[in-house]
Amino acid sequence: MRMYDVIMKKRQGGTLTPEEIRYFVEGYTKGEIPDYQVSALMMAIWFRKMTPEETLELTLAMRDSGDVLSLDAIRGIKVDKHSTGGVGDKTSLALTPMVAACGVPVAKMSGRGLGHTGGTIDKLESFPGFSTSISTQQFIDNVNRIGIAIMGQTADLAPADKKLYALRDVTATVDNMSLIASSIMSKKLAAGADAIVLDVKTGSGAFMKAEEDSFALAREMLSIGRMAGRQMAAVVSDMDQPLGRAVGNALEVREAIETLMGKGPDDFTELCMTLGTQMLLLGQVAQTESEARAKLEESITSGSALRKLAEFVEAQGGDPAAACDPSLLVTAPLVTEIPAPCDGYVRKIACDEIGICSLMLGGGRENKESEIDLSVGMVLHKKVGDAVKKGDSLATMYASDAAKAEAATKRFIAAYEIGEEKVPARKLIRGIL
Ligand code: URA
C-alpha cells in the first residue's frame, strides 16, 4: 500500500477501507509516514468528509495505537463522563463525588488543560498535596475501596490521536465532525469504561458555536460509542456564557464544594443533576429519571457527596479538610471588583473573552510548558438576563499581578453587552440524546 494512493482516493471523494485507515494510523504513529503526507490526507478528509464506517474505523485504529485500559477488576458498571469543554466548566469536580456517593463506580482519566483555565487535574491540584500520578493498581484499588479515583492520562493512551491532533491544530483541520468525534472517542474507549455520558457544549465558549453542529457532534459520538459496544447518552448544554459563576482553578474548586454543600449556582447544580441522572441510569443504580434525581439530591442534603469528595482527596494524598472548608484552598493576593459601565440588562457575555481574561491573569496555559497560577480568576455576579446599575460589581477579580489585573478588567468589561431591553435568561439544557 502507498500513502500517495490513500491521499488520492480521499481527494477524489472515495471511501477508505479499514486496511487503508489502519495503514496510515499505524504508519504515522511509528513515524514511518511523514507529517506532510498525513497533513494532505487530513485536508482531503476535511473537504470530502468520512462515512460513519470510516469514522468508526479511525476511532478504533487510534484507540488501538497504545494502551487500552481494562477496568474488569473494578466491581459494577463503570460510567465515564466527557465534556467537550468550556469556560467555568468544573462539572467533574462536583459530579463525580455525587454519582460515586450514589453507588456508581467512578474510574476516570483526566487531562491537564491547554487554554483559558487548567483541566480537571490542574483544578484538583488546588487541594494541597493532591496527586493524580498514581499507578493503575492503586487507581483500581481506590475505586474498589471508596468508589472513586481520577488519574492523569498516561502518555501511551491513544498516541496516534496525540500526534494527529497536534498536526490538525497547525494545519487548519481541527473542525471536522468525524475527526473531532474520533479523536475524543478513541481516548474514551481506551480508558475502559462500560458506559459514557457526553456533555457536548454549544455557544461562543464552545468548540461548536452553532447548536445544530453540537447536536450533530453528539450524534456522531453516540453512534461511534454504540457501534463499539458501549452504553451511551449525551446532553447538549449551553456555553454561550460561563457555567456557574467561578472561572479559574481554585475558585472553581470552591464553587464545586459549595455545590456539594447545596449552595451552588442554579445552572451548575442543574447541569450536575442532568448529567448525574444519565450516569445513574446507565450505571443501573436507578430505574427512572425521578429516582435518579432523588438519589442525587439526597447525596447533597445528607452530605454524602461532600464526604465522598473528602475521602477521594485524602486517598490521593490531598488535605481532606480543604474539601469541607474551601478557605484552606490557595487564594490570590489582589481582590478587586469589576464595575458595570452603565445601567441596563446583561444581554450577552462573550464567553471565550472571559476565558481569555482568566488566561491573562495566569490561570491557563499559553503552551504546554506554562506554569498555572491556581489562585487567580473571576467570580461573576451578573449573568445574561440580569439587571445592572452603573458601578454595580459585574464580577470579583482575583489576581497576583496589578498590571495583569488592569488589562484583564478592561477586556472583561468589553466582553459584556449591556442594553436597555431585558433578554430572557439562557436555556442551559438544550437536549438529551
Ligand atoms: N478534543 C479532542 O480531544 N479532539 C478534538 O479533535 C477536539 C477536541
Contiguous runs where pLDDT drops below 50 for at least 5 residues: none
Number of helices: 17
Radius of gyration over C-alpha positions, nearest whole angstrom: 22 Å
Strand percent estimate: 15-25%
Mean pLDDT reading = 93
Structural class by SSE content: alpha/beta
**H/E order of the elements?**
HHHHEHEHHEHHEHEEHHHHHEEHEEEHEE
Q: What is the second-level CATH architecture of the largest domain? A: 3-Layer(aba) Sandwich
Taking strands numbered 1, 2, ... along the chain, how are they ordered across the largest sheet? Answer: 1-4-5-13
Residues in helices, as a percent range = 40-55%
- Structure summary, number of beta strands: 13
Give every kind of bound small molecule, once each.
uracil
What is the CATH class of the largest domain? Alpha Beta
CATH topology of the largest domain: Pyrimidine Nucleoside Phosphorylase, Chain A, domain 2
Number of domains: 3
Description:
With 433 residues, the protein is of the alpha/beta class. It has three domains: 3-48, Transferase, Pyrimidine Nucleoside Phosphorylase, Chain A, domain 3 (Up-down Bundle); 79-326, 3-Layer(aba) Sandwich (Pyrimidine Nucleoside Phosphorylase, Chain A, domain 2), CATH 3.40.1030; 330-419, Alpha-Beta Complex (Aldehyde Oxidoreductase, domain 3). Helices cover 46% and strands 15% of the residues. The protein contains 17 helices and 13 strands. It has helices at 3-11, 18-29, 35-48, 52-63, 91-101, 120-124, 136-146, 159-169, 177-190, 211-227, 249-260, 266-282, 289-301, 304-315, 321-324, 351-361, 402-415, and strands spanning 79-83, 106-110, 148-152, 195-202, 231-238, 246-247, 334-339, 344-349, 377-380, 387-388, 393-399, 416-419, 429-432. The strands form four sheets. The chain has a four-stranded mixed beta sheet with strand order 1-4-5-13, with helices on both faces. Helix 2 (18-29) runs parallel beside helix 4 (52-63), helix 5 packs across helix 14 and helix 16 runs antiparallel to helix 17. The longest helix is centred in the middle third of the chain and has 17 residues, at 211-227. The chain is globular and about 65 Å long. It starts with a helix and ends with a strand. The mean pLDDT is 93. It binds uracil. Uracil is lined by residues 165, 174, 179-180, 183-184.
